[in-house]
Design a protein that fits this description.
two-stranded antiparallel sheet, eight-stranded antiparallel beta sheet, mainly beta, 85 residues
Length: 85
C-alpha cells in the first residue's frame, strides 16, 4: 500500500476527539484511509466524518483546514498520509 502525504495536524481537541488538519499537499474525502504518523503517534483509520467551520463536508481540496474525527490522540505536527492500494 502506498502512502501520500496530504497534510499536517495543527491542533487536537480531546473531548470530541477531533484533529484539525491543514491539507497542504493533497485532498481528502470521506471514506479515504489515512495514516497519522508522528514521534509518538501511529494511527491508521478511515475518514468517517469531516467538518469545516462546524459544517459537515464530504471532500476537502488542497489548502483546506478541516476537522477529522479520530479514534485516538494525535499531536500537533503529526503528518497525515492518504493510504492507497
Amino acid at each position: 500500500m502506498a502512502e501520500t502525504k496530504v497534510g499536517i495536524v495543527f491542533q487536537y481537541f480531546s473531548k470530541p476527539q477531533v484533529a484539525a488538519v491543514r491539507l497542504n499537499d493533497g485532498a481528502l474525502k470521506v471514506g479515504d484511509s489515512i495514516h497519522i504518523l508522528g514521534n509518538t503517534t501511529d494511527l491508521k483509520q478511515h475518514v468517517d466524518s469531516m467538518q469545516v467551520h462546524n459544517q459537515p463536508i464530504t471532500e476537502a481540496p488542497v489548502g483546506s483546514e478541516i476537522g477529522i474525527r479520530v479514534e485516538d490522540r494525535v499531536r500537533p505536527n503529526d503528518v497525515v498520509y492518504k493510504v492507497t492500494e
